[in-house]
Amino acid sequence: MTLQALFAKLILKLPDRLKVWLAGGRPLVLGGRTLDPALQLLTYAASKRPPLSSLPVEQVRAAEKEGLKPFTRPAVPGVQWEDSSIRSPRGHRIPVRIYRPARPNPTRPALTYFHMGGGVIGTLDTCHDYCQLLTDRVGCPIVSVDYRLAPEHIFPAGLEDCIDAYEWTLAHSGALGAVSGHAMVGGDSMGGNFSAVITQEMIRQGKPPPDLQLLIYPATDFVTPFDSQLVYGDTYPLSTATMDWFKAHYLPDTTMDLADPRLSPAQTTRLAGLPPAVIATAGFDPLTDDGAAYARKLDAAGVPVQFQCFDSLAHGFVAFMGITPAAHLACQAIADMVIHALEQRT
Fold first, then answer.
1. CATH number 3.40.50.300 given to 76-345
2. I need a surface site. Which of 85, 157, 178, 238 has the fewest CB within 10 A?
3. pLDDT recorded at residue 271
């Protein structure tokens, strides 16, 4: 561990009042919500650096990878994982990381998980800590997907990889130690978008849909101008400027129909009959209204929905479990929501 990383970890061990003092002297309150002190300190430190939206893609990818290293949590006892790859019907291989719990529940479906990153950044390591927690707590195997990223591979390349990975998981669920012929989808941010799209796309194509869709601070609607995009438009790590930066790299051109359900699953005209959803949002996030609105739409269509907003947390909190206990507790709560949703379904 570098001296800078060690210093960062020591700073975050300070009492909350000192974190707030170091980050400007008073709690950060927006829209009636108060940001977690550790995340406020992280936000304050980030404000001294150039915004991500001003940097080239490779630099942002490197910053994301290095920025999370100091806060990696210890491995979850008993959880095993292996890096592998699966063959896409489209002719290339998709890297995956397969997690297996110490105490598997053979009645649970496997989960295909897609990391955050706007379709532009992120790796299997981005969600590594969370996938360990999730596989351990839910008792299901997880196939985490290293889908292709833009701008090297623009829309719909990443989505296609995620569809292929879901179908592979569905076909191999029994061999993975889960209930045969069943699988879930889940992801955070762009991974939540992919999960919502895949859930709808399987039904549109007449294929087996997931047993459950886990959407963590998802982007589901690129059309509607939500109030949270103004209230939390300058928050860290996701701002509206960063969202625009992601979109500019992810989409092939500016003339695309943003209401296309493969981009904006909330814009579809058919929501009835979708499988149950677990939706979690962060309070300090331009996407917080997006996730809440999609939860309401699903509920109105008769889809079983469990929804919770973690008011004191910021976008990306599944990667912040090593930064603040509040993020760790939220991730545990989301896993428990998944368990409850599965038990309600059966």
1. no
2. 85
3. 96
